[in-house]
Amino acid sequence: MKQLHKALFLTTMLFATGIASAASGQTETYDPEVRLAELGIELPEPPSPVANYVNGVQTGNLIFLAGKGPLRPDGTEIHGKLGADLTIKEGYEAARLTAINQLAVLKAMLGDLSRVVRIVKVLGMVNSDPDFVEQPAVINGFSDLIVEVFGERGKHARAAVGMATLPRGQAVEIELVVEVSLESTVRTGPGGEPLEMTYFGTAGWRISDGNVVVLVDPYISRLKYGNGGHSDDDRPHFAREDLAWSDTTLIDSLITEADFILCTHSHFDHLADVPYIARKTGAKVISHETANTILRAYGVPDEQLYTVRGGEDYQFEDFSVRVVPGLHSALNEKLYYDSRRYDEASNLEAPLRINQFIEGGTLNFLARFDRHTVLAMGGMNFIEREFEGLEPDILLAGINGSRLGLYDYDRRLLTATGSPPVVLPTHWDNFRYPYGFSQQANIERNVLPFIEAARTISPGTTVIMPVHLEPIKIH
Ligand SMILES: [Zn+2]
Fold it and tell me: Ligand 1: distance of its center to the CA of 359 in Å?
């Protein structure tokens, strides 16, 4: 079944048009994953790091991959010293196997290998007898496969050196540096204008198919709030009792237009920037009574506010949206529960304090665009029967630590939504850090375990880890 799933997925990709490689301007069809399929190579589970380090670190558009070795799918390794125990041909095979393992790591990090712009630098270390001098012939096993898969983009600068020994006696260890496109390109359907999706962090997104611009929970200010701030962040500190503040300069630099804003709930890290964004853009807001009562207090005009309770299915000119009843994340070790609501009798006065941004209940949205259907979540919980049958092709899945407090979350979520072709993890970052600060700890803690789980639960799903403010294009 797993094999069949994968085969179908790859077949779909084969029939899709080649990726227009915006990054390099080349016009040839570039699809490393199709090349892998042609070569009969199926990527294994990425090998887990064995100590306190990570498989790879991305900084800007470069990924530095940790050294990996010739680990076989059954968990054994190719051991031995070149020039003593192993022939050059055996060493070559060990280097080729190492390349496959590194491609598995890259695939897990990128979601789609066609995001590789260039293999930049390779360091190949060969477990060598003192008299052995053919290290390049061994590491060619790595380089040859890389060039077979990536073509011209696979050609790299390289060092191939001999080592007196290597961990566990493995035959080779190879590390590499890869340049990646910050624009992801994934196909779920036939040609046409892609759906462009940009992650603002927290549960915030900009989604556009060229006809309509839809924002989901756009929270840009990323206040240094509570105890979760970064010591290198010299912005002012905010406490629960402080007035919420929007960084309008930053918002202006990121958001110039919007037709609709979908708000899942009214906690400050979802709603606090919406008053400014709604007034500035004139966008229609779809949310519950509590959120819209807050927005009214900030002077957002009534005609911009669609108040919903869940279950509505509204048709607009260029898209439609179904409001799906939901549940808030199980915060505070599941002790969180907030029944408070605002309505026209609430007499709110703007600006509100941060702790006046109460949840007000939680909604999800099924947004139907011309050729894509996006199911947007605002947190780490859902009502299973409300998701069943929705079958989005793109799922914005709440992936934060609090999901671990729910029964079999990853499996129930991916199964109820019909194993969506594309899943974009959302709400996994530390929203108290400004843009540009490393989110590596949260990627390790939240996103990578989910990617690993999804590979088993739903092999046909591509999980793309979004990077703040970098558009992902889905064809
Ligand atoms: Zn919340």
Answer: 6
